[in-house]
């Protein structure tokens, strides 16, 4: 036996017969794999690397648990820029001062970042295709959604009211698809980023989350296609009858109109899923953080109720204009997002060519870069920056020239929770209205507080640069009996 084993090794290596060919293929694969794992995700040259000298795998995990302290370490050691091994591989962290250069520079794009870090070429991840391939999705939000706010705000308000009366139901099939797809999408992207790049084209077929993504797309298609067919039929009938073709006020229509305006086609299923990916987790995380801050600062609950009541008495309904008058609420929301943003790195780009910044920093082609929300807590920008002050932006907005500068939706180099510049979030106007409407209904109809003994808001959980509200926190909620202003919303 020993003899035959010894003689078989050289014969396998020399490629004798089918066994030999397979063995050579396996050996070559292992060599390529080892070399690729070693060379992929290597740090960029010319940038100080923060973090221990450890395997890429360990470094990626360390980023997931300690991104904030790694960035703080970088700040203490250097005056920027520096790099870390993030879960997506090497990541250059740029100083907030570079925002003016980054924000409108087409050589470093948000699209390339989405494409690279959300694996849009793998089946299941097509939900970001409309945002990556062209401007159809961005235009559908910027033009379709934002310009329809006047028409949809009152509808949104009555839908919120019904939803609350039915005690937070989670009934419709679409809602389930939207939430499941979003959760699976971001989890799957996290898992794949941890994987060495060379293995990803194989691994993505087998992850439970990516399997569910593919199933969700099929389920979404089953739901959306009959609706589209019915619309096409109705439009055909309108045309035959010589009537103007009915345009719907919803995301299916906005995506279609944005695509047609550019002579392009956008798969309506991906368009809808792109809306859920852009809107679901960002808005819910921001909203839950606001709720936690309200309960940690309950003195604002009465103040906000007074504002709600006053605006309703003046205005008589909850439309787009009425919402702009909720100035204290707007200030409270911005203060909450200033101290607890959805992510500590809201501005992300991938350089599509080598770029030399004005301070001489050379960003290599293909590099991933991010700008952190540091100015939000910079004492030279905000007085007593770590203190929660729900009136902070209200007071700033009263200063000359401050009216539009300090709104929840305003962006600047000092306030990048929605990004800033060319790619600043176009959905922020809708998100702001949506959050205000929910707060109006919740505060008017319910008492909310932390359980006995809890006074501080729970600290957010860090997942790399992303911040998640602690899901374990319990909130006591009951209908208000006294003092309810009898609005019909
Ligand atoms: C509170 C909720 C939200 C937050 C915190 C948020 C945050 C962001 C951030 C940080 C960016 C990147 C900006 C940059 O790189 O400069 C972004 C981009 C974007 N967001 Fe939002 N977002 C929110 C809600 C929404 C909603 C509701 C929609 C759509 C309905 C949306 C659609 C988009 C789109 C299309 C982009 C890409 C813009 C571009 O590439 O030019 N977002 N968002």
UniProtKB/TrEMBL annotation:
The reply on keyword rRNA-binding is no
Give the transmembrane region(s). Answer: 12-39
What the entry lists under Gene3D superfamilies is as follows: Cytochrome P450 (1.10.630.10)
Could you say which cofactors this protein requires? Answer: heme
InterPro entries given for it? Cyt_P450, Cyt_P450_CS, Cyt_P450_E_grp-IV, Cyt_P450_sf
Task: Extract one GO cellular component term from the record.
Answer: membrane
Assigned keywords, A-Z: Heme, Iron, Membrane, Metal-binding, Monooxygenase, Oxidoreductase, Transmembrane, Transmembrane helix
Annotated GO MF terms: heme binding; iron ion binding; monooxygenase activity; oxidoreductase activity, acting on paired donors, with incorporation or reduction of molecular oxygen
By its UniProt entry, which CDD domains does this protein fall under?
CYP503A1-like
Q: What is this protein called?
A: Cytochrome protein
Organism lineage: Eukaryota, Fungi, Dikarya, Ascomycota, Pezizomycotina
